[in-house]
Structure formats: structure tokens, C-alpha cells
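Annex B. Sample input.
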Amino acid sequence: MITVYSDKHRLHSGRGELNDGQIMPCFENPNRADAILARVKSEELGAVIEPVDFPIDAIQRVHSHDYLTFLKNAWDEWELLHGDIDAFPLIWPVRGLRQVCPEHIDGKISYYAMDAGTPITSGTYQAVKSTAKVALTAQKLIADGEHSAFALCRPPGHHASKDVYGGYCFLNNAAIAAQAFIDQGSKKVVVLDIDYHHGNGTQDIFYDRDDVMFISIHADPIMEFPYFLGHADEKGAGKGMGFTHNFPLPFGTKNKKWFEALKTAIELIIDYAPDAVVISLGVDTFEGDPISEFKLKTDDYTVIGENLAKLKLPTLFIMEGGYDVDEIGINTVNVLSGFEGAE
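Annex B, continued. Sample output.
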């Protein structure tokens, strides 16, 4: 399996995030990608290639022009006013406030952000734009005939919606890749999100569409981030009614219950008969993950890959979460090697 990777992810490296009422070192950091890449190479998964360039139009098919302009200019505007410190929101446009984007940078960040755990740094825009190209390059490999590919994306993307960032995510790499499949002639695509956290951004982007089915297995948002999306009764809207499927699971979920949800998800995919599958691959379901409450074990990730291979569909893996740096490479590559070994 070919892995697409860019070292430009290092340009985004936050100094801290708000967690448990205090500023703490960022769980989402460059060490994550380093560990995965090292494991890809040590296990000889396949070639590792650099992304190729793509026009901004491919990203604008998912994200709004105004939002991308904000991301491009946010650091310069922030640094001019606040200096060389990470940028965080100050206030959110909650119920009772108008949804109007301010001109002041503090207001702009507050308008576009969904949390205070996702710092904007001097290199964020360059890093996330490169990461989107990683996803698009891997998608192109499959469009050109590869059966599978791995986009080693960092930062992750599945919490980012059309014009909102948060949950460590700025550009929705999985959604950008899925849209690219559609734009290149695919009639139907599935995004299967197996990250511990619900892919609220991906759901929002495709919620009213029937050409991209979104399926997510995740911690119940009644108890877990992102809290405000990912409930089982969210099924889609308009043309998209019946094409969103959420499987919220309780804290402490072990492999038996988790694999029951995966079995149902696979049945849904088979019935839908898509042209391609995009896997939002999070391994923060691992029992040792520092910010998660599921109990999957290392060997379970090989079984996940084996189950996904049974679909016998072109499959694009997009890296999302996973914050146990010591194990993230092992668990990620277990999924990929399990998939390859079962083909």
C-alpha cells in the first residue's frame, strides 16, 4: 500500500491547548505523524511518496471561500495585534447572538472556531493546505487504479465543517477526498469514520446529500466531544435522509460491542454499493489513549483492517485521531496491514 506523506505537517505545532481548565501541552503534535511514518517504514508497508500540487478549487469544493481566506490571513492579523503567541477564540456566537462575522481578528477567530483546544500558529495554514494535498494525492492514486492508499494526514480533519474549525481540525481531508471521487465520476461514495470522536464536520458537509453516505462509530456525544452532533437519530435531511448513520457507544466499550457496530456499518455499505470507500482512520479507540474512553486492544486493529477488506472496494485511508504516541504507529499500521493481508 502506498503512503502519501508531507513533512510540512510540522509547520503546525501548537504550544498548548485548553484542557481540564488549564493550558496543557497539545495532544495533537508532530510526534504523532513521526511515529506512524516510522512504523510504515519499519514494517515495509509500501512506498512513501510526497503529495503533488492541486488547485485551491479542489478544497473549495468542500470549504467556503470566506473560511479559506480567514485561515490564510488569520495568523498575520493575530500576530499584528497580539504578538507571537498561539491564537485562540475569546467568545462564541451562541444562541441569542447574531451569526455575523466581525472584522476584528478576535471576533473572526471566535466566529470560525468551535473550541479552545485548537490553536492557530504561524504555520497552520501552510500545514493544513499541504495535508489536504496529501489526501488528494492518495485519492488520485485510487482514481488512477490503485486498490488502496494511505493518506498520512496531520493535522486531522473530520471535525472541520464547511466554515468551522476545531477538535484539532482545520480542513476536512476525508470530505475533500470524497468530493474528489464524486467530481471525477463516482456516483456514490461512503465515508466510514472509525475515530473515537464523532466526525461532526463530515456529517455536516454531506448531511443533505445522497451521493455520499456518512457512517460513524464513536463515543456517545451525550458524554463526549463534540457533544452537539453524532446522536443515533441524526439520519440526514432532504435528499440526504437515510444516508447518515451514527453508532454512538458508551464509555468503556470493548471490542465485542465495537465490532457489532462495524458489522452493521459494513452491511450498510454493501447495500449502498458505492464506487469507493473513504475511511476516517482514528486509532484513539485504543485502551491506552490519553483522551479517550474505549478499550480496543492492539490486535483488534488488525481485525478491523481484515473486516474492511471484505468489502472488496477501492479504499482510501485518511489519518484522523490517536494520541498514544507510543502505540499510534503500531495500531495504525495494524489496520493497514490487516487490510492488505486479507485482500
